[in-house]
Amino acid sequence: MKTLTPAAQRVLDVAAELFYAKGIHAVGVDTIAAEAGVTKKTLYDRFGSKDELVGQYLAQRDERWRAHVREVVARSPRTSAVRRPLLVFDALEEWMAHETARGCGFVNAHAELPERDHPGRRVIQAQKEWQLAYFRELVAGLRNPARLAESLFILLEGATVAESLQVVPGAVANAKRLARQLLEAAA
C-alpha cells in the first residue's frame, strides 16, 4: 500500500472504524470526511471514490491480519508440522478478542459488494487466497496437503463466523480441536 498523507491516513482510519462497525453502505463520505476533519474534496482527492477508499480499507485490514498471523506463528519457531497450522487458530482467537463486534470484516464487506469488479472484492479474494496458500505452506510435507489446507481454511472461516455470531460458544477452540485431529491423521 502506498504512503498516505496524514489527512489521508485519518480518512482511512475513520473509514475503517466506521465501515467495520456500521457497514460499508451505511456510512457515507460526508460522515467519513466530517469525522476525519477533512473536506469531501480532500477525501476524493486522496482516494478518488468511496469504492477506492473501501478497497484501501480492506487492503490495510489484510496487511494487519497477515502481519498478525505471521507474528503469532513466528513466536513458536520450533513448533512441529502438526502444531504450526494450529497457531493460525491461536492468531484468530487473539484477533477476535479485540474485534468481536462484527466478525470477519472481509466476509461482511463481501456481502455488501455484489459487483465483481469492485476494488474491495479484489482485495477480499486476494486475502482469502492468501489464507489458503498460507495453510498450504504450513502443511507442506503432510499427507494430502492440498485437501488438508482446504479443510483448515474452511474450519477457520466457519469458526470466525460462528464465534462472531456467538452461536457456538468457543467456536475457534472447537475448530482448532477438529483441525488438530485432521493434522494428526495427516502426519
From TrEMBL:
Residues 28-47 bind DNA. InterPro entries: Homeodomain-like_sf, HTH_TetR, Tet_transcr_reg_TetR-rel_C_sf. Residues 5-65 form the HTH tetR-type domain. Keywords: DNA-binding, Transcription, Transcription regulation. It comes from the Bacteria. PROSITE patterns: HTH_TETR_2. One of its GO terms (molecular function) is DNA binding. PANTHER family: HTH-TYPE TRANSCRIPTIONAL REGULATOR YJDC, TRANSCRIPTIONAL REGULATORY PROTEIN. This is TetR/AcrR family transcriptional regulator. The lineage of its organism: Bacteria, Bacillati, Actinomycetota, Actinomycetes, Pseudonocardiales.
